[in-house]
Write a structure and sequence with these properties.
By secondary structure, the protein is mainly alpha-helical. The chain contains 13 helices and 6 strands. A hairpin with a 2-residue loop joins strand 5 and strand 6. The two termini are 32 Å apart. Residues 2-10 have low confidence and may be disordered.
Length: 291
């Protein structure tokens, strides 16, 4: 499966169903033989607060190995699923734990859980990750869980070049996972000890709170914050929780448009809608995700 680089605008995310008319029936579409039709049915149902169809997606993922389908399904599982759904999907594919594509996509799903339990499987993925791109993806999502800004968890594991004595042997990097895992575990303990309980949803090292998430995103957009990965992660989390369309945050080539983006977030914070979101509760398109 190709991990082709794409711009934030190349995939419509949670608005992938935006071209479907009102005549689209998620109930009948869920029984389609076409995986994309089933995915769109599950997405449409989740946007109405019905999350029951998420359990159908892992089996479909075994039949459709394309980049965009795996990105779409792991995102909806991560952002709309509770821990049972997310960990269940992870377990369904656990035999692929050494596969770089699995590592890359499920790092995102686990990180989106906003659950401290995700740290353990994320470190399991990291332990198996030989591909540098997958390893950085895992490190990024650990950081989004445990750090308010790019810090030592984001910086990732150090690596050194191993030059073999035999010229016929390939060069390889040795990854210092022991030191990095210590950094992650310390960050995990610090966050855990600051929460009311280990079951409290967490994002960027604090209790998950849609209002605070939106305010942090607005502050970054108004400033010259260069943490573009973190800004985009906050954008996706903001759209998933509120249902507000954030595709206009970027141009077609992926350039961040700070002023239009800030206007969308500011409009939310100035509205009465913000009072609907309770700290410590995850949401998808305004609907509480039952744990």
């Amino acid at each position: 499966m190709a991990q082709a680089p794409i711009s934030p605008r190349a995939y419509d995310g949670f608005y992938a169903d935006s071209s479907l008319g009102d005549e689209f029936d998620p109930v009948s579409a869920a029984h389609s033989e076409d995986p994309w039709t089933v995915y769109l049915a599950v997405l449409r149902a989740c946007k109405s607060g019905n999350f029951a169809g998420l359990g159908r997606l892992p089996a479909l993922m075994t039949k459709t190995e394309g980049y965009f389908f795996w990105r779409a399904t792991t995102e909806i599982i991560g952002y709309a699923g509770n821990w049972k759904a997310i960990s269940g999907a992870f377990s369904y594919f656990e035999s692929r734990i050494s596969n770089s594509d699995f590592q890359y996509f499920f790092a995102s799903a686990l990180g989106a859980s906003c659950n401290l339990k995700a740290v353990t499987p994320l470190l399991q993925l990291h332990q198996e990750a030989e591909d540098e791109e997958s390893r950085h993806q895992i490190e990024n999502h650990l950081s989004y869980l445990l750090e308010g800004d790019d810090g030592p968890v984001w910086d990732g594991a150090s690596q050194t070049l191993d030059i073999p004595d035999d010229d016929d042997q390939p060069l390889r990097y040795i990854v210092d996972r022991v030191s990095y895992f210590d950094v992650v575990q310390k960050a995990f303990r610090d966050v855990r000890d600051s929460l009311p309980s280990e079951a409290t949803p967490v994002y960027e090292g604090k209790t998950y709170d849609v209002g605070q998430l939106a305010q942090r995103l607005l502050d970054r957009l108004r400033s010259d914050d260069r943490q573009f990965g973190r800004i985009n992660r906050e954008r996706v989390a903001f759209e998933a929780a509120t249902g507000l369309d954030t595709r206009s945050f970027y141009t077609e080539n992926g350039t961040l448009l700070r002023l239009p983006a800030a206007a969308i977030v500011e409009g939310f914070l100035d509205s009465d809608d913000v009072s609907r979101f309770r700290p410590g509760q995850r949401y998808f398109f305004g609907h509480p995700i039952p744990e």
